[in-house]
Specification:
Layout: E1 2-5, H1 8-24, E2 31-33, H2 36-40, E3 44-45, H3 57-80, E4 86-89, H4 92-104, E5 109-112, H5 124-131, E6 134-137, H6 140-148, E7 153-155, H7 159-163, H8 170-176, E8 184-189, H9 194-214, E9 218-224, H10 227-239, E10 247-251, H11 254-260, E11 263-267, H12 270-277, E12 282-286, H13 290-299, H14 307-312, E13 319-321, H15 327-339, H16 341-358, H17 362-374, H18 387-394
Parallel strand pairs: 1-2, 1-4, 2-3, 4-5, 5-6, 6-7, 8-9, 8-11, 9-10, 11-12, 12-13
Helix pairs in contact: 1-17, 3-4, 4-5, 8-11, 9-10, 9-15, 17-18
Length: 395
């Protein structure tokens, strides 16, 4: 089976999908383009996933020739040795092109994680229909969009929602971070890509400096997913002479930081959903190259960008983007959460409702959706599902 992810969030989701399928079909083998989490589940990667981890029109131009070469090479390899199924995990600009070629050649294609057609570029749904045999979507409202367009679709819920506790133990998380009784933790999530750190690291550090100047009780935790992003952030701390700030860099452990924190500053993306599921009040920020931002803003359908606001259908967390993303503005917005305990508790209750909606039994739904493509292959030697999975499939 072929599977391709293009960034850290896709690697996380791809790993969850591989686990779900291997629990049902233990002999399944996966190859394509994978990150460390997918490879830990047994996937083989033909190319480094980091080569695809570029966001934005302007930013992609610098890497376009290499990315197109990877796509041609991968497509040629899969056409020469066809997989039983191709699963594209997010990364639509890369995956839809591969999927279209494979589908035309008679290879079944599934796309896992819907592009944000409800937020911008709605015309892309026509390309999706020509490229995929089936969509697996994570948010309830997405299913109707694809059914209306005549595209086979299954709502599978979100593995993060199933995997994160409905009632986080904040005291335990703070104990693991060795926080004193008077310390107030704040999580800072500047992004998972190196290109995001280039735009956000200084902003996050200067925001922490502005907050610490007025609130000495604050302790900042920065979870970073790769050695490259960690090294870059540390270099910026030195360059900005900010080593005296109470900042702790974590190698991963984003959920731990979010469970412990009273508030978080989060770069827009999957991390905002992770923060919501952790019941952590947040301020959402993001910067892009000016031309990229202008193009995205011009084609946006919704007034908000972050997933908590999209899922709520209204602004429930502040978004400070592009020119509005200044250390002073971000420090003020975070301070507003820190100063208002009642507002924090109301938001946590909203996040709890959101969590319950998304915890839909992801693994069982994925197995059911993909069973038509995988059953009947003797080499897969499907295992007998446990009673919980059987009940979920009957439901």
């Amino acid at each position: 089976m072929a599977i391709v992810a293009g960034e850290a969030s896709g690697d996380l989701l791809g790993a969850a999908l591989i686990r779900a399928l291997k629990a049902r079909w233990p002999a399944l083998e996966f190859h394509g383009i994978a990150g460390p989490k997918m490879m830990a589940e047994g996937a083989r990667s033909f190319y480094p996933m980091e080569k695809l981890a570029v966001r934005g029109y302007v930013e992609v131009i610098r890497s376009l020739r290499e990315i197109l070469a990877i796509r041609r090479g991968l497509t040629r390899r899969l056409l020469e040795d066809p997989p039983d199924l191709y699963i594209g995990v997010d990364a639509p600009d890369f995956n839809l092109g591969v999927e279209a070629r494979l589908k035309a050649a008679g290879i079944p294609t599934v796309h896992y994680v819907s592009p944000s057609i409800w937020a911008w570029r709605p015309e892309r749904i026509g390309t999706i229909g020509r490229s995929v045999d089936r969509m697996l979507v994570m948010f309830p409202f997405e299913e109707a969009l694809y059914r209306k367009a005549g595209i086979a679709v299954d709502y599978v819920g979100h593995p993060l929602a199933d995997g994160m506790p409905l009632a986080p133990d904040r005291a335990e998380a703070r104990a693991q971070l060795r926080l004193g009784s008077g310390a107030v933790p704040v999580a800072l999530l500047p992004g998972s890509r190196a290109s995001e750190l280039e735009l956000h690291a200084d902003l996050v550090i200067e925001t922490a400096r502005a907050l610490a100047a007025r609130r000495p009780e604050l302790r900042f935790f920065v979870p970073l997913a790769t050695r490259e992003t960690r090294d870059y952030f540390e270099a910026r701390l030195y360059a900005l002479e900010a080593r005296e700030l109470p900042i702790t860099i974590l190698f991963g452990h984003a959920q731990l930081a979010l469970h412990a924190a009273e508030a978080a500053l989060v770069a827009s993306g999957t991390a905002t959903l992770e923060a919501a599921l952790a019941r952590c009040p947040m301020v959402v920020t993001y910067r892009l190259k000016p031309l990229t931002y202008w193009l995205v803003k011009r084609r946006a359908i919704l007034p908000y960008f972050s997933l908590p606001n999209v899922l709520a259908g209204e602004f429930i967390v502040p978004e400070l983007l592009q020119d509005d993303a200044t250390p002073a503005n971000l420090a003020q917005a975070l301070g507003n959460w820190l100063d208002n305990r009642q507002a924090r508790e109301r938001l946590r209750a909203r996040f709890g409702t959101l969590h319950a909606r998304l915890a839909a039994g992801h693994d069982a739904r994925v197995v059911e959706a993909l069973m038509p493509y995988l059953s009947g292959h003797e080499s897969f030697q499907p295992s007998e599902p446990g009673p919980g999975l059987r009940a979920a499939l009957r439901g």
